[in-house]
Write a structure and sequence with these properties.
The protein folds into 3 domains: 67 residues; 269 residues, no CATH class; 324 residues, Alpha/Beta hydrolase fold, catalytic domain (Rossmann fold). The chain has a 7-stranded mixed β-sheet, sandwiched between helices. By secondary structure, it is an alpha/beta fold. Strand 10 and strand 11 form a beta hairpin. It has 23 helices and 21 strands.
C-alpha cells in the first residue's frame, strides 16, 4: 500500500501499450477459436460448454485488460464545508449570519439590539458585564452564539480577531454545558442544549481552520490568544492512542469531504472536531513504522478543555493568563471522556479519513503492477529501506490485541479489503480486541512463492514486535484470504513434509546442482511447517481445486502481459539444463505465473487438500455463487464467475456459507462481513471461556514441541 510515484512514466506507458496490443491479439485468438471449433452450437462454432469453460473466462480477462482498473473515487471535496450551524444561524444566507430567535429576545430584553447592528464588539462587552452580574445559562448561550456570528463577519478581514472570537464562543458554549452552577437549569431535551454542542464544535473547528492556515496545528505546541474573556495560553496535547507528536505532518478537515467510495459511513456524535491526520516519516522513528504506508491518514478528534474554575471563564481579567488544552484523541482507541463529572462521547468520523487515504492516485496502480510487474514489489522503499511488498498496518501496533491479517487475491491489493475493514473496525467489540494487518504481494507469481514470502514476513514481524516471544495475543492470529489469498493463507498452516518437493524433483534437494542461494530458496518454498501462531483461517471465494479461469487462452494471454525478471527465467532454464534427471519436465518449477499456478490440472491442489492440517487451526469458508438471473448469471451458473462452487468448497471446515455474489464482490458482501464478524466473536468467546487465571498461551500445549519456540510459543524458530 505504500507505493509513491515510484513507477516511472515509461513503465506505465509500456504497460498500457502492451495491454492494448495484447488485447487486440487476444481478440484475434478468440475469433480463431470460433472458426476452428468443430461444433456448431451456441455462438458461431462454439459449444455452450466450451464457451463457459474456456472462452467466457478469456473474454472476462480481456475485458479487465482493456478497461484496466476502474478509477475509484473515494471522497470528493465539498463546495462548502459541512456545518450544522448553517441553518440555525443562517450562516450562508444573504442576510446572515443572524442570531436565533431566543438570542434576539434576550437582546430585546436588555436593550442590546441596536448594539448588535451597530457595534458588535461593544455588544459583547456589555453582555459579558451582564453575565458577571446576573449569570444564567441562556446568557452564556447567547454570548457563544453572538461571538460566533461576529467571528464569521470579520474572518476575511481580520483572521486573528476571528480566532479570538471563535475561541471565546467555544469557551462560553463549554461553560453552558459543564458549569455546575447551571446544572439545575440544564435540559438535554432543549434544542438549545444541542445548539450549544454545535456552537462548541463549530467554533472550535472554525478557529482550528484559521490556526492551521496560519501556523499549522502541531502537537506539543502552545498558542496565546486574546479573547473577550481575557488572555488564554492553549497547549496542544495528545490524549489516548499510540501515536507520538512526531507522527503528525498536517491535518485535513473531515467536513471538507464527502464520502463516495465506501458503502457505509461510520460516525459518532458528541463533542469535538473530527479531523484527518496525515502521518509523516521522521528520523529515528520506531521500528514498527516500517509497517505504515507512506502518507498514511487516520482519524483524530480535537477537543478544547479550559483549565481551572469554570466560574471564572466569564470574568474579564487580562492581568492573568488562563490556560486551556487542545486535546487530540484517537477515536479508534478513545470513544468517550469525563468532563466535570459528565460522561461525554467524542464526535468522530472513522470512515472519511480512511477514504481520504485511499484516494491517493498511486494506490490505484498497485493491483495491476503486482500482476504485470511482480518484481517491482521487491524494490526497496527509499524512505524505510523495505521492499514494497510485505505487511502493513493502518494503526500502531497494540500489544494485547489479536492480529487479523487480510490477504488479497489475484490482480488485487489491500484496497480490496477496505469495505470489510471499514465495517469490522467500527464494531466496538471487534475494535477493542483485534488489530488489523494487511499483506501486499505481487500476484503475478505462483501463489506458493507468495506463501513462502508471507512465512518469512510473519517471522520477521514477530521478532520485531515481540523479540522474547512473550506476547500471547500474537499467538491467536486470524488469517482472512480472498481468492488466491486464501491459498496463500492456507499454506501457512500445513506441514509440507516432502510432499511438495515431490512435485518439483525426483532426487533429494541436496542432490540438485544449484548454487547455495537457489537451493535455500527452493528449500524455503517447498519445505515448511505450520505457523503455530495462526489459530483460524477464513477463505473467501478461494479456488481450493483450481479455477477454469486458468485455461489455455488466459494462460497465453497473461504470459504476454506478465513481465518476469529475465534472471529468474534464465536461472530456471539453467537449473533444468544441469538437472535433467533430478528435475522432470512436469516439475512445478516450470510454472512461471500465478494464472498458470491456478490451473485445475496443477498437482499442488491435491497435495494441499491432502495436507496435514494442524489440530490447533480452525478453518471457515465462504463461497460465492452468482444469482442465476441475467446473461452473466446464466453464463456463470454454479460459479462466482471465476471459481466454481465445487472448487470453492472446503472439506472439514468449521463453517461454510454460500453468498449470492460474484468473485470481485463476495468478500465485501454484507453476509460475508457478518460471517467474518461471527467467526471473530466466536474466537473471542472461546478464549474468554478459559478458566479464571488462564491466558491465551495455555493453548500452546496443543502444539507439538517441534513447532514451539524457545519461549514456548510463536514464530521464532
Amino acid at each position: 500500500m505504500p507505493l509513491r510515484y515510484d513507477i516511472n512514466q515509461s513503465s506505465r506507458m509500456t504497460s498500457r501499450r502492451s495491454a492494448k496490443n495484447t488485447g487486440w491479439q487476444a481478440a484475434s485468438a478468440t475469433r480463431r477459436i470460433h472458426v476452428e471449433s468443430p461444433t456448431n452450437t451456441g455462438l458461431v462454432g462454439v459449444s455452450p460448454y466450451r464457451f463457459r469453460r474456456i472462452v467466457f473466462p478469456a473474454i472476462l480477462c480481456l475485458f479487465v485488460v482493456i478497461t484496466g482498473c476502474a478509477s475509484q473515487k473515494w471522497v470528493s471535496v465539498r463546495e462548502t464545508p459541512k456545518n450544522r450551524l448553517t441553518e440555525t444561524l443562517m450562516v450562508f444566507s444573504d442576510k446572515g449570519p443572524k442570531p436565533t430567535e431566543r438570542t434576539q429576545q434576550l437582546l430585546r430584553v436588555y436593550n442590546l439590539t441596536d448594539d448588535f447592528h451597530n457595534n458588535p464588539q461593544v455588544l459583547l462587552e456589555k453582555l459579558q458585564a451582564i453575565i458577571e452580574r446576573e449569570p444564567s445559562i441562556d446568557k452564556l448561550h447567547a454570548f457563544a452564539e453572538l461571538s460566533y456570528i461576529c467571528a464569521r463577519k470579520v474572518e476575511n478581514s481580520s483572521p486573528e480577531k476571528a480566532i479570538d472570537l471563535y475561541v471565546a464562543s467555544a469557551l462560553y458554549a463549554y461553560q453552558y454545558l459543564f458549569d455546575s452552577r447551571f446544572t439545575s437549569q440544564s435540559n438535554p431535551y432543549d434544542p438549545q442544549f444541542r445548539g450549544a454542542c454545535d456552537l462548541y464544535n463549530g467554533s472550535l473547528e472554525a478557529a482550528l481552520r484559521l490556526v492551521c492556515a496560519k501556523d499549522g496545528l502541531k502537537p506539543g505546541k502552545s498558542y496565546t490568544l486574546e479573547t473577550a474573556a481575557g488572555t488564554w495560553d492553549i497547549t496542544v496535547e495528545l490524549r489516548g492512542g499510540r501515536w507520538s507528536n512526531e507522527d503528525f505532518d498536517h491535518f485535513e478537515f473531515v467536513s471538507d469531504y464527502e464520502l463516495k467510495g465506501l458503502t457505509n459511513h461510520y460516525r459518532s456524535f458528541g463533542l469535538g472536531v473530527p479531523l484527518i491526520a496525515v502521518r509523516r516519516g521522521y528520523p529515528n522513528e520506531p521500528d514498527v513504522a516500517k509497517y505504515y504506508p507512506i502518507d498514511l491518514s487516520f482519524p483524530v478528534t480535537v477537543l478544547m478543555r479550559p483549565q481551572g474554575d469554570l466560574v471564572s471563564l466569564s470574568k474579564k481579567d487580562r492581568s492573568n493568563h488562563r490556560k486551556a488544552v487542545l486535546e487530540i484523541y484517537d477515536p479508534l482507541t478513545v470513544t468517550d471522556i469525563a468532563i466535570e463529572n459528565h460522561h461525554v462521547p467524542l464526535e468522530s468520523d472513522l470512515s472519511t479519513p480512511l477514504a481520504y487515504f485511499l484516494s491517493k492516485p498511486e494506490l490505484e496502480e498497485l493491483a495491476t503492477v503486482g500482476l504485470l510487474q511482480p518484481d517491482f514489489f521487491r524494490k526497496i522503499r527509499p524512505d524505510m529501506k523495505k521492499p514494497i511488498m510485505g505487511l502493513y498496518m493502518m494503526q500502531p501496533y497494540e500489544p494485547g490485541k489479536i492480529p487479523v491479517l487480510m490477504v488479497h487475491g489475484l490482480w488485487s491489493s489491500p484496497i480490496t479489503w477496505m469495505e470489510m475493514y471499514n465495517d469490522l473496525c467500527n464494531s466496538p467489540e471487534i475494535r477493542e480486541r483485534y488489530q488489523f494487518w494487511f499483506y501486499l504481494y505481487p500476484t503475478g507469481q505462483p501463489f506458493w512463492n507468495s506463501a513462502m514470502q508471507l512465512r518469512k514476513d510473519l517471522a520477521e514481524a514477530r521478532k520485531l514486535l515481540d523479540p522474547t516471544g512473550q506476547e500471547p495475543a500474537l499467538d491467536q492470529m486470524v488469517l482472512i484470504g480472498h481468492s488466491m489469498g486464501g491459498l496463500v493463507s492456507h499454506l501457512q498452516t500445513i506441514d509440507s513434509g516432502d510432499d511438495y518437493w515431490k512435485l518439483v524433483g525426483n532426487e533429494p534437494i541436496d542432490s540438485i546442482k544449484a548454487n547455495k542461494e537457489v537451493r535455500e530458496r527452493m528449500r524455503d518454498c517447498f519445505f515448511f511447517h505450520p505457523n503455530p501462531s495462526i489459530r483460524r483461517v477464513v477463505t473467501i471465494g478461494t479456488p481450493h481445486r483450481g479455477s477454469r479461469f486458468s485455461n489455455n487462452v488466459t494462460q497465453w494471454l497473461t504470459s504476454k502481459l506478465i513481465t518476469l525478471p529475465s534472471a529468474i527465467a534464465e536461472g530456471t532454464e539453467r537449473l533444468f539444463a544441469e538437472n535433467k534427471k533430478g528435475l522432470p519436465k512436469n516439475s512445478i518449477l516450470t510454472i512461471r505465473t500465478s494464472i498458470d499456478s491456478l490451473s485445475p490440472d496443477s498437482p499442488v491442489f491435491d497435495t494441499m487438500l491432502a495436507g496435514r492440517r494442524p489440530p490447533w487451526v480452525k478453518f471457515h469458508n465462504v463461497i460465492g455463487v452468482v444469482p442465476n438471473d441475467g446473461i452473466f448469471g446464466r453464463l456463470a451458473a454454479g460459479t462466482d464467475g471465476v471459481v466454481s462452487r465445487e472448487s470453492a468448497h472446503l472439506d472439514d471446515a468449521e463453517s461454510e456459507i454460500i453468498v449470492p455474489a460474484d468473485h470481485t464482490t463476495v468478500h465485501a458482501h454484507p453476509k460475508t462481513v457478518l460471517e467474518v464478524r461471527r467467526v471473530l466473536m466466536e474466537h473471542l468467546a472461546e478464549l474468554d471461556g478459559f478458566p479464571t487465571g488462564m491466558d491465551f498461551s495455555t493453548q500452546t500445549a496443543k502444539i507439538p514441541d517441534v513447532y514451539q519456540t524457545s519461549a514456548g510459543k510463536g514464530l521464532l524458530r
